Structure formats: structure tokens, C-alpha cells
Amino acid sequence: MELKVSSLAERPEMRERVLDMADSWPRFVTEDLVGNAHYGRISVELPEHVLFAEDERGEVVAHAHSVPFALHTEGRGELPARGWDEVLVWAFSDLRRVVRPDTVSAISVVVDPRFQGHGLSARMLSAMRDNARAHGFTEVVAPVRPSAKHLEPHTPIDEYVRRVRPDGLPHDPWLRVHVRAGAQVHAVAPASMTVSGSLEQWRRWTGLPFATRGDIEVPGALVPVRCEPERGYAVYVEPNVWMRHAL
């Protein structure tokens, strides 16, 4: 597939089309409050870090969001256990306080469901790496959501991450794409994303009854959702995997 990759800084008029592109996120994932508060800001305040790909017809088929942040200053130094959520908070805190960033974090690589299976995610990851390098950065990190982990939600994430194929590459397809691009597995982010809500909200998001206390398997969830009917809420705490890309 012939692709043209651009940034929103180069073509700001494309913002609405990029954000309106179809995706395959489970509904509940989009209810993360940190993500809701910050994700849309990337395309407005950091458009040079939003890339999108168009096919031969000019249709948007994929996009990639990332954020620059200060990892090696501000008393940080370590990638956060609260992965995706915390790196978004760090990035916009640094932007507000005019702190000089030294690292880029991937936030998302999204492919239109109609075009999945054609290697577009790997191409967008490569474009993100190139974009970070062009802006003077020497490392990209990524709180990766393993793409096949939802098939075995009860497997501990540490065990899942260690699983490799006979060729030494990760068992998980999305982790494998990152390793093939030059990344190394760094650490697990055990609380990378948190989605909490009332039982009624979870019923609306998933179509499940959420009437029983304990761990509930939800399609698309990497780990079970904890349901507490007597308290009226359920909570999902998603683990991700920090990958580091030296540029």
C-alpha cells in the first residue's frame, strides 16, 4: 500500500479527519479519565507529534500520537509504574511549566480496522521514531498494550512478557513489532491505565450484568475487571509494558 505520512503541524486542516478515523478500541478503554483529559490536547498543543497516513485515495488509514517529556530531570529518572496515564500527565505538566523535554513517549498507534493486517502499525511506529529523531531526541519509550493479552486475562503480565517464540522474539504480536523495530523490553507498568465507574456505567460500556462480586472477564480487557456490587462500582487497572527505543 502506498502511503503518505504527514504531521498535523504540517497539515492542521486534517485534525478532524484524523481524530474521526475509525478505530477498534474497546469502549471501556476510552473511559480512562486521564486519557479523556489529555489525549485530545496532543493534536492541538503538540501537533508536530501527531502523524497520520493517507492511502492513494487520500483516505486517512492510520495515525500515531506521541508526547515529549522530561525523563532524566524533574526528580524522575525512572519510567513510571502508572505508565500511560502518568506519562501523559508528565508531558502536559512539562509543557505548562516550559520544562525542556529529553524523551518522547509513544501514546498510541491506531490503524483503521479495514486496513489492519497490512503492516501499517509497524510503518507508523517507524515514522514515529523518525519524527522523534528529526526533532532532536535520542530515545522513544512506549507503554505498550500487548495486543494478544486479552485472550488470556488471568495470566500474570510478568509471565506473559517473558514468553518468547523459538526465534527469541516475543510471543505477543505488538511487542514483537517493537522489538523488530529495535526496542528492548524495559519493565512492566502494572497500573498503566485505570478505568473506574459505577456498575451502571460498566453495564453500558460492556453489555455485561456486573452483578457478582469479584473478577469479571470483559472482552478486550487485558486483566479482569474488579466488581464490588455492595459498594456500587467496578475498577479496571490495566498493565502495560515499557519498551525503550534508542534512536
Task: Summarize the structure in words.
Helix content is 28%, strand content 29%. It is α+β, with helices and mostly antiparallel strands. The chain has one domain (4-189, 241-246): Gcn5-related N-acetyltransferase (GNAT) (Aminopeptidase, 3-Layer(aba) Sandwich). Strands 1, 2, 3, 4, 5, 6, 7, 8 and 9 form a nine-stranded mixed β-sheet that branches. Strand 7 (214-216) and strand 8 form a beta hairpin. Helix 2 (33-45) crosses helix 3 (83-97). The mean pLDDT is 97.
Give a summary of the structure in a few sentences.
This protein has helices spanning 15-19, 33-45, 83-97, 120-134, 157-162, 173-180, 199-206, and strands at 4-7, 50-54, 60-69, 103-111, 139-144, 183-198, 214-216, 225-228, 233-246. It has 247 residues and is α+β, with helices and mostly antiparallel strands. It has one domain: Aminopeptidase.
Number of discrete helical segments = 7
Order of helices and strands: EHHEEHEHEHHEHEEE
List segments where confidence is low: pLDDT < 50 over at least 5 consecutive residues: none
Strand count, sense and barrel status of the largest sheet are:
9 strands, mixed
How much of the polypeptide forms β-strand, as a percent range? 25-35%
Assign the CATH architecture. Answer: 3-Layer(aba) Sandwich
Our Rg estimate from Cα atoms comes to 18 Å
The strand count comes to: 9
Q: Give the distance, in angstroms, between the N- and C-terminal Cα atoms.
A: 26 Å
Give the overall silhouette: globular
Query: Which homologous superfamily in CATH is the superfamily?
Result: Gcn5-related N-acetyltransferase (GNAT)
Count of domains: 1
Overall mean pLDDT = 97
CATH class: Alpha Beta
Q: Helix- and strand-based class?
A: alpha+beta
Percent helix range: 25-40%
